[in-house]
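Changelog-linked ticket: 2'-deoxycytidine-5'-monophosphate example.
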Amino acid sequence: MPADVIAIDGPAASGKSTIAKGIAKKLDAAFVSTGAMYRAVAWKAINAGIDPDKVDEKALRKVLDSLQMSYEPAPGGSKELMVDGQFLAHELRSPEVSANASKLATLPIVRERMAALQRAMAGRGLIVMEGRDIGTVVFPDAKYKFFLTASPMERARRRLAQEGESKDGATVESVAKEIEERDCLDMSRAIAPLKKADDATLVDSSGMQVEEVLQKILEEIKSR
Ligand code: DC
């Protein structure tokens, strides 16, 4: 039996990971952050000295061919993304990795590899997968689709509150500008751009607490 997929897409810093993890916990489902996967590509590409603005395709192919990713039980008990044998939660959230992930995510070879891996990760049972193109490209037939967003200023405030995710001396305005640049790149790329699937439920979480958003999504899932 194929997996039942709950797709949660949306722009940068819209709270997708928090909400997708919360839904997975409440429904005892598997969780996959596809953003973390693109970030892992960027992290490994940085270590290999690849310039995201002038990509050496041969070097990038080598990075992709050798990159190992899977969800494994972490010391805290939950399953986390393991990248080449390491849990890199902190490293993957740096501003440099964020910016490079968006740039590398425009490349066909990166998108093809990630989509194939994401489809392979959905084995059996229920899975909550969050990203930009899950409901539109990776799993267009997903049983449940949500598009999560929030106002640009609220997203900037949330991002700034996460330690280690903004540059030193960053302000709400500077973070809002960076988020806007990333959204623009994610929405304007030729392949699998960020956009709401026609059949996805729009959830604007501006001014809402995490628990309220979770309840709204769970109600929608249960109503089907
Ligand atoms: O969700 P995030 O901020 O961790 O994602 C980091 C970058 O990865 C994002 O700017 C674009 C890219 N990405 C993508 O292109 N497709 C996805 N499904 C998920 C992320």
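Closing comment: Example verified and attached. The chain is about 45% helix and 15% strand. The two ends are 19 Å apart (CA to CA).
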